[in-house]
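4.2 Preliminary Data

To establish feasibility before requesting continued support, the project team ran the inverse folding procedure on a target of 288 residues. The structure was first converted into the token representation described in Section 3, and no sequence information of any kind was made available to the design step. The complete token record follows.
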């Protein structure tokens, strides 16, 4: 993409000349300027960069690491010496980049994933009366996160009645979430993949629908222990250890998923952004 005239109606966008340079104070770099010989448009090597017009490029990689290491957005802003709104704006930007990198990374294993585990992790937006479900699929052998999807679910148990009274009817979007999850993993996994999960009633229809040649094994869910944030189980051998351990890692490292915390998700699209950032950090920096 570099060194191409940004003018979309330009007849010959590759016919360009060097045209001096400028010093970018923000990250102390000398940036080459160019001029299009056909239409005269001036641009620079920064024009096509994903960080074009950003004023705090230098914090991007540190922010990614902090957000994937259990630091809240506001505390990251204090540590990095930037405004909290800058962090808010950087979250979707980093997430978009991470999504592209995640997709490219998983393409390497296309058709070579033979064992997967799926599970759901429950969290909330603002209040326990508004729960969210994070559907997660992991590669059992490589311990990579294959996909993460966030969906809205209605409150359950003794909170169900109270939730309807306070917030009205809440649509159950878990089915849509699972659809997105299976649409993402189906092209990556081998058709004869072995799927392990708990006895959630929704899983069998999705597994047989999307992966008809697969083998689905279900296991009874066990009681959690406190050290694993309720995700690691109190039994000697846990057949779903990989996915439960990944869920425990998510809870420990994505600040807003920690149980009994002050930090909560206020906007579920931001939770998805945060999870995609963690997925990149986990798959490509921690598990490398
Ligand atoms: Zn041009």
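Position-by-position output of the design step:
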């Amino acid at each position: 993409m570099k060194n191409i005239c940004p003018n979309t109606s330009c007849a010959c966008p590759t016919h360009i000349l060097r045209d001096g340079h400028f010093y970018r104070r923000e990250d102390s770099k000398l940036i080459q300027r160019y001029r299009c010989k056909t239409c005269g448009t001036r641009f620079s090597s920064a024009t096509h960069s994903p960080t074009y017009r950003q004023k705090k490029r230098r914090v991007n990689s540190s922010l990614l690491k902090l957000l994937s290491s259990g630091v809240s957005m506001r505390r990251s802003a204090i540590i990095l010496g930037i405004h909290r709104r800058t962090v808010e704006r950087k979250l979707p930007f980093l997430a978009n980049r991470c999504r592209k990198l995640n997709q490219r990374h998983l393409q390497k294993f296309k058709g070579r994933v033979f064992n997967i585990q799926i599970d759901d992790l429950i969290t909330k937006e603002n209040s326990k009366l508004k729960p969210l479900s994070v559907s997660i699929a992991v590669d059992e052998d490589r311990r990579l996160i294959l996909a993460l999807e966030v969906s809205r679910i209605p409150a359950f148990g003794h909170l169900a009645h109270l939730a309807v009274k306070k917030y009205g009817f809440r649509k159950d979007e878990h089915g849509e979430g699972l659809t997105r999850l299976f649409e993402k993993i189906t092209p990556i996994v081998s058709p004869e993949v072995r799927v392990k999960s708990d006895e959630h009633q929704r899983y069998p229809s999705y597994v047989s629908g999307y992966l008809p040649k697969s083998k689905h094994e279900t296991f009874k869910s066990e009681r959690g222990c406190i050290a694993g944030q309720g995700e690691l189980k109190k039994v000697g051998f846990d057949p779903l250890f990989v996915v439960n351990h990944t869920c425990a890692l998510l809870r420990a490292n994505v600040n807003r998923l920690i149980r009994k915390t002050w930090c909560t998700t206020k906007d579920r699209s931001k939770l998805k952004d945060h999870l995609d950032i963690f997925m990149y950090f986990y798959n490509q920096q921690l598990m490398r």
